[in-house]
Amino acid sequence: KVMTPHTLRHTFCTNLANAGMNPKALQYIMGHSNITMTLNYYAHATFASARAEMERLILVSNEALTALKWFGIEATAAGNSGIGYNDVVRWIYDALYHLNVECDFVWPESENFSDYKAIIVPALYTASDELLDRLNCYVENGGYLVATFKTGFTNENVKVSHEVQPHLLSKCLGVKYHQFTFPQNVKLSGRIIGTSDACEVKTFMELLIPDSAEVLASYEHYNWKEYAAITKNHYGNGVAVYLGCMFSNSLLEKVLNAAMRDAMVEMAEEKFPLIVRKGVNSSGKTVRYYLNYSAEEQTTSNRFSDGVELLSGSEIKNQGPIHIAPWDLRIVEEK
């Protein structure tokens, strides 16, 4: 690797940030005209040395991504256009992001499922029996699984499972289905649907038949009213929730919020547009990042130990206010 004076300057700045120097002082030393330039170094250093203690993960699969390009979610005899695998992953991730739920991304070969309180599985279209058995065991041993439509549909060779869908996962999910369709003028009804919820079914729907699962929402349609849309099943010591269709972002946030609380996952009280992230730095101190993604000032309170706001050097008392200007951030390190 070629070393230049600029490389040494970058390392110098990063090391000072890692050592905990106040960003304003670091800006002065580096001669940066804009604090944003300094924060780029500071954020890189702090995030690199921070260890986020994740309790939930999203299981992503390149095999499912490729298979759903060949056999699309909205594929018909007329073509293979429409939403894809990444759209379903983003649908899930955006809802978690708005709820301030941090998550890891893992792949089917990962071996540490038991380390997590909750696993979210979006459109795992192609999966080996071994992987599906591992997910069944994860739930049976006390884990909390949330899976979406188009999961477990084919094996690793993209051969459709003809016995029952969603193949082996029907065991922990407590549901099965033999039919799916594209919704037209279909809505959801059920105990989780509030009067103000946007409950229109979008894009794709599986006609779920509960075995042992509790029905959280059904299809409100003269043809499909006997079928479930969202279910929850207790299996062994754990719980598995199945989303058999796509619906509004706001309703997804409601469903995932209930699931994460049910799984006893630690959640911030703040919601979008105030995003909160947490890590533990190399000194063993908890650092929280408060990011305001709006044109209005956001205010929250410090529900944790006394700390120091690293950008200004001001003290933040327990239960004291934290003000975040529009499109700005605050970084609070606990004492």
What do you see in this structure?
- It is a single chain.
- With 335 residues, this protein is of the alpha+beta class.
- It is built from eight helices and 20 strands.
- The strands form five sheets. Strands 2-1-3-4-12-11-10-7 form an eight-stranded mixed β-sheet, sandwiched between helices. The chain has a five-stranded antiparallel β-sheet with strand order 14-15-20-17-18, with no helix packed on it. It has a three-stranded antiparallel β-sheet with strand order 6-8-13, with no helix packed on it.
- Helix 6 links the parallel strand 3 (118-121) and strand 4 (144-148).
Mean pLDDT: 88
Query: Which band does the percent of strand residues land in?
Result: 25-35%
Order of SSEs: HHHEHHEEHEHEEEEEEEEEHEEEEEEE
Biggest β-sheet: strands ordered side by side in the sheet: 2-1-3-4-12-11-10-7
Q: Helix proportion of residues, in percent?
A: 25-40%
SS elements, strand count: 20
